[in-house]
Structure formats: C-alpha cells, structure tokens
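ARCHIVE RECORD
Type: protein–small molecule complex
Small molecule: pyridoxal-5'-phosphate
Source of inputs: curated submission
Record status: active
Notes field left blank by submitter.
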Amino acid sequence: MTAGAGVAGYAEREARLLMHTYTRQPVALVSGNGARVVDSDGREYVDLVAGIAVNVLGHAHPAVTEALAEQAKRLVHASNLYYTEPQLALAEKLVYSAFPSRVFFCNSGAEAVEGAIKLARKWGKVHRNGAGTIVCAKGAFHGRTLGALAATANARYQEPFQPLPRGFVHVAYNDPAAIAAAIDSSTCAVMLEPIEGESGVHPLDPGVLAEIRRICDDRDVLLMLDEVQTGMGRTGDWWAHQRDGITPDVMTIAKGLGGGVPIGAVMAVPRADVLVPGDHGSTFGGNPLACAAGDAVMRTIAHGGLLENAATIGDYLSESLMSLAAAAPIERIRGRGLMLGVALSADVAPQVSAAALEHGVIVNAIGKRTLRLVPPLVLTRDDVDLAVRGLEAAFADVQATG
Ligand SMILES: *Cc1c(COP(=O)(O)O)cnc(C)c1O
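STRUCTURE (tokenized, with ligand):
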C-alpha cells in the first residue's frame, strides 16, 4: 500500500469542514513512540519533523504523558488571578537554563512575539523618549498574528492583510553593519532569530551575534532573540545564543517548550522588564496543565542527556546525509544540532519529501531547494540509519522519474 491510500476520507471531510489554510501531506497520523509515528493505515515513519520542532521528547514520552495525567487529575486550569505551583516551577527552570530574567507565559510562538513587541514598545516609551520602531531581519519568521506578521518581512504573508501595524524596519540578516545603520532615535529594539528557521535554516556567521549585541549596547536598544524554533535544546545548547557567549535582553520561546502541549513565553532581563499589572495578560497563559508538561520536558532534557544527544546525533545525521551526496543532489547542510537544512542543487525538495513519505520518512520541504529536519531530541542512531536509507531511496526515485 502506498502512503496516503487511506486518507481520501480525511481530505473530503477537511474540504467540507476546515478552512483551507494548510497544504497537507496525504497522511493521517494517529499515534507515535519516540521518533516513530504511525498513520491511519498502520504504516510507521521516522519523524524528522516532530510537529515542526515541537515534539522535542518525541511521541508519547512517559515523562510528558504522566505529568499531564497527574496534573489533569488535580487542576487543568486556574487563570492568572491566582497562584499555581507548576507555573512557578517551570519559570524557575527556564530562568536557570537561560539568564537572570522574569517570565511571562502565553500559548504560542506568535503570542510570545506579540508580548515581546509590546514590552519593547513600552520600554521605548519609558526609557527612550517614546521610541517604538523595531529592527528585524529579512527572511525572518515571527508568526501570523498581526504584530508578528508585521515583523515578518514576507510580502506573500503580509499582502492580503494590509494595513499591518507600523514601526518595523527590515534589514539584511547576518549583517551587523546594516543593523547599526538602521538604528536611530526612533528605535527601541532589534529582534531576530539566532538561526532563521522557516526560511530554510540559515544561521548567523560566527561572531555576528556578539557584534549585534555590542551594537545594541552601544546604541542603547534592546536585543530580542526569537528562539521559538532554536530553543529547548535543539541546537545542542538550551538556547542557541549560548554558543555565542551573549545574553539577549528579551527572548521569545514556544514550540518545544510543552513537548507538544501549546505554551509560549517571553523572558526579559530586569532592565527590560517594564510591564506592570494591566499592561498585558492571557487567560490560558501558563496554565497548570501546559506548565506541568513544560516542567517534565525541561527535567527530561536536563537529566536525560538530551542536549548532548542533540549535538552528537545531529552531527551523525548530518554526516550520514552528506554520505548520500555522491548520488543525490545534496549541496551542503546548514544549521547545527538537530536543526538542519539540507540544501539541494536541484528544485526537487517537494518531490523528495513526498517520495520520502513512501519510504517511511517524514521531512519538510521549504521552497524548492531545502529539506528541513527538526527531529525529536531523543532521536537514536537506529532512527538516523533507517531515515537515511529511506531518504536515499527517495532521492533515487526522484532521480529516476526526472
Ligand atoms: C514557529 C515560529 C513562530 C510562531 O510560532 P506559532 O506557535 O506558530 O505562533 C515564531 N517565531 C519563530 C522563530 C518560529 O519558528
């Protein structure tokens, strides 16, 4: 049976019931374990997408399922009118993993970015004569809500939804001089991803982030890093910026934080933390269920050696993929740890991704020339070996059909 044989019914119901906002692969996923997922026909796949960098502990990790079950028996939700233990416990772990800061919890990456934008604007009001402009990078992705979309310089995403909030300027990524030139008296912050994810895994060159940190210090504007995709151990460090020996003033996180349960957060150093009661809020933000999941994820990453695993298995995955390059149009691999972009020398990424499904591997095509791999941090050598064999067969199929 070929992948997707059993999903005709799903597609027909989707067409009737769901807004057509997504282009889906012809597969319905029903269960999983570790880095393996099973579809509605009972076929198993090695999952190198992990819900788009979300399922950092893979599927059905007992630490997450048990934390969720235990918390659900006590208290699922309480609102932020009251104290709850899981929210404080998770904040403690986050601050310990990152830098001295305080945390605001929300429910998604875009929401974390919205919180950071509001915080930067207020900081500019209080500390920089009302400066409210945020310098962002071309190729960035910060989410789909209006503010986050205004920060995302992608004409196709933005055009149908004009007018967008003002006060964002976009300069070349990886270019400290362009950032320095864009900062003026109206600027309150610089916001960027340490590795651009959605545009196809584009890292900053070594030293660039430290240079941008110096510029932000010199010019007295906030440095805000969007680590929604790069964070939670994916690059082999808790947070990608730690490799550069710098600390941002504000950091946005989400995706992997809840191990699959929706949760996001903004973290700010004390000097940037200008929000007071009434400024910002979220009904669900930091609810006990999501925070219990986040707490379990952080504990498991820390005690399960998963930062080390992300680094070493990421290198192994990278090397194994490059060993296919003799027979496949693989140019090079960008990124680090378990955040990898496979750059192709031919416009075949969507075909390879579709063929990979047939061979039991889930990968994500970005544009025509990049495959993105953001697998669970629990990925094993067996998973890699199986996935690379499947990808080899997928490349061969695509080559054969020209
Ligand atoms: C995915 C992503 C977002 C948006 O997160 P959502 O949870 O989809 O709103 C924001 N920033 C970055 C860097 C992302 O990768």
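CURATOR ANNOTATION: The pocket of pyridoxal-5'-phosphate is lined by residues 108-110, 113, 141-143, 193, 197-198, 226, 228-229, 254-255 (CB under 6 Å).
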